[in-house]
Amino acid sequence: MSTENSRQLSRCRKGGLALLGALLALLFAAPIVAPSASAGVILPGQFLLLDHPDGTISPPPYGLRLDDLGLTLSTELNGASTVLTWSGGATATIVGTLWNNQAAEMWTVNYTLTGVVAAGASLGFTATGGNGSLTDPALNTVTLTGKQDLSGSAFDFLADGYRLGGHPAYGDADTPVARGWVEGAGTNDWLVRATLIPEPGTALLLGTGLALLSRTSRRLRV
Questions:
Q1: Helix or strand or coil: residue 52?
Q2: Number of domains into which the chain is organized
Q3: Co-location of 146 and 212 in the same domain
Q4: 28 with 51, same domain?
Q5: DSSP at 5
C-alpha cells in the first residue's frame, strides 16, 4: 500500500470512528427517554412475555393456565412469542402466539386489558377488566374474560418480582411480572415475566455506524 493510500485510510478510519462515537453517544443517551422495564421501573412500551418459573403445573412451563379447559400455554416454547403493548393510556393489549402444552400445537391470543391505571412511581399498571380470545389452528376460538380479585383488579403489571423469591436466576424484587385472572372454574390466570423490547432506532444507529466503518475500510484496502 502506498504512503498516500495509508494516509487516506488513516483519515477515513478517524472519520469513521468519529461517526461511530457520535452514534454510540446517541445510543447511550436513548435510555434517558426510552421505555424501561428494569430497576423497579415500567414505562409505556412493548414487552416480551416469558413463562414464570413459579407456575403450579410445571413442567412443562407456562404463562397462561386455564383449568377450566385443562390447558396450560407457554409464551416461549417452540417459537411462541407474546407481546404486551401499553401506550400509557387506559387500555393495553396482549397479542401473539402461545404453545398449547397439551395439544402440542400453536395457538394465537388477542387480549385487551381495560380500565388501565398507571401505578405510582412508574411501577407499572393495574387493569380492572380484560376480554379477548384464543384461536387454535382449526380457527376454533376460546373466549377469555377478565376476572377481578378482591382488590378490584383483573390484571397487574408491576415491577415487584412477584413470586420470584424462590427463583433468583429469573429475577429479583424489581423484576417486572404480569399476572391476571380469567373467568372459569378452577385456577385460570396469567403469570408471566416481562422484558422490554428495545426500540429499533438506537440499534439501527449503531448498526449503521459499524456498517459504514467496515465498508470504508474494505474499499481503501482494495
A1: coil
A2: 2
A3: no
A4: no
A5: H
Q: Specify the long-range contacts of residues 130-139, CB closer than 8 Å, at least 24 apart.
A: 130/154, 130/155, 130/180, 130/182, 132/94, 133/109, 134/73, 134/98, 134/107, 134/108, 134/109, 135/107, 135/108, 135/109, 135/110, 136/100, 136/103, 136/105, 136/107, 137/105, 137/106, 137/107
191 and 204 together in one domain: no
Please name the helix (run of DSSP H) or strand (run of DSSP E) that holds residue 130, with its range, or none. Answer: strand 129-135
Please tell me whether the overall predicted TM-score, pTM, comes out greater than 0.85 for this model.
no
**What value does the mean pLDDT of the chain take?**
83
Q: Is 20 in the same domain as 95?
A: no
User: Do residues 205 and 128 share a domain?
Assistant: no
Asked if 86 and 187 sit in the same domain, the reply is yes
Least confident of 54-68, 112-126, 146-160: 54-68
- Which domain does 128 fall in, by range? 37-196
- Rounded to the nearest 10 degrees, the angle between the axes of helix 200-221 and helix 3-29 is 180
Of 109, 149, 144, nearest in space to 127 by CA: 149
Least confident of 3-7, 141-145, 165-169: 3-7
Pair (191, 214) in one structural domain? no
